[in-house]
């Protein structure tokens, strides 16, 4: 069974083994969601897209921070169900779950102020069409916030395919310009980009 699981770490099963890390205290210590949300100016009426929302690690804190809508997009409906139940428990009415593929984002162009893409872009091949879609849904002065792991040395099957330099290049190729870089821990990097 383990071998079978191993073969399906990517694609629609990619979240299963990650849930423990996604909500882990270690991750919370390395990158508290509130800290990430404080890196950029977010208005109360902003619309946020949590792209590859997973367990709602960013969706739920974001929805508490603003009055505008937080779109939690994921392919996996079991993840979206988890987010819906968390939102219900917290009495948050501004969380909107969206089941969608990464290259077919079912949101109109120029409607989103902030896209959060945390630990998801390295899963996507090819990446450029998805980044172009994310750029399209962003308003002219919107921000894309990309969080990725960059594991130094050693081979790890969960290691990302995109290091910092590769991600910078991909964002630039998609017509985004990088405005800030942050390194919250040894293994994490954050890139903030806007439309070029």
Could you walk me through the main structural features you see in this protein, from its secondary elements to its overall organization?
The chain is α/β, with parallel strands linked by helices. The protein has a single domain (2-195), classed as Rossmann fold (3-Layer(aba) Sandwich). The chain is 31% helix and 26% strand. It is built from 8 helices and 7 strands; from the N terminus they run H-H-H-H-E-H-E-H-E-E-H-E-H-E-E. The chain has helices at 2-7, 19-22, 25-30, 33-37, 59-65, 77-89, 128-137, 164-173; strands spanning 48-51, 70-74, 95-99, 112-118, 138-149, 176-185, 188-195. The chain has a 7-stranded mixed beta sheet, sandwiched between helices. Helix 7 (128-137) links the parallel strand 4 and strand 5. It is globular and about 40 Å long. The chain starts with a helix and ends with a strand.
List descriptors.
196 residues, alpha/beta, Rossmann fold, 26% strand, disordered N terminus
Short description:
This protein is an alpha/beta fold and about 200 residues long.
